[in-house]
């Protein structure tokens, strides 16, 4: 199994387990939103939180890979890439390799975003079951900052990996 797909399957499984765990332990009234400082600023029902997080998870963990697969069908019209890169990777002799690599890269990015969502489910469940109305310290900025840094690193790696050879 390719690394991106393995990461996606792992994160998707963990996300499903976290939602089941949250459904089992959360009270009827749960925090549904935290401000940047980690304080609860909105509450909802357990059902609406779980349905919302389930739909967002499905959109990210299944929707991004499906969108990538749809974008690589046909002649590549739906791909937004520099012309030289597109011409290189969509040449008949490289198109199959491109699809495999691109799909795996999108699976990896879905897993990265899914890991952020998994952390949100775990944190919301922890806050909802602990009786607290906030998270300690700078948890939210640290989590978002880590995600942004990982996304930048992923993007730089992607730009390098798909750069056509010189000449």
TrEMBL record:
The UniProt record lists the keyword Transmembrane: yes
Entries under InterPro entries matching the protein: DUF1648
Xref: Pfam families: DUF1648
Signal peptide, first to last residue: none
Keywords: Membrane, Transmembrane, Transmembrane helix
Domain DUF1648 intervals: 14-55
Superkingdom per UniProt: Bacteria
Name of the protein this chain belongs to: Putative membrane protein
Taxonomic source organism: Nocardioides cavernae
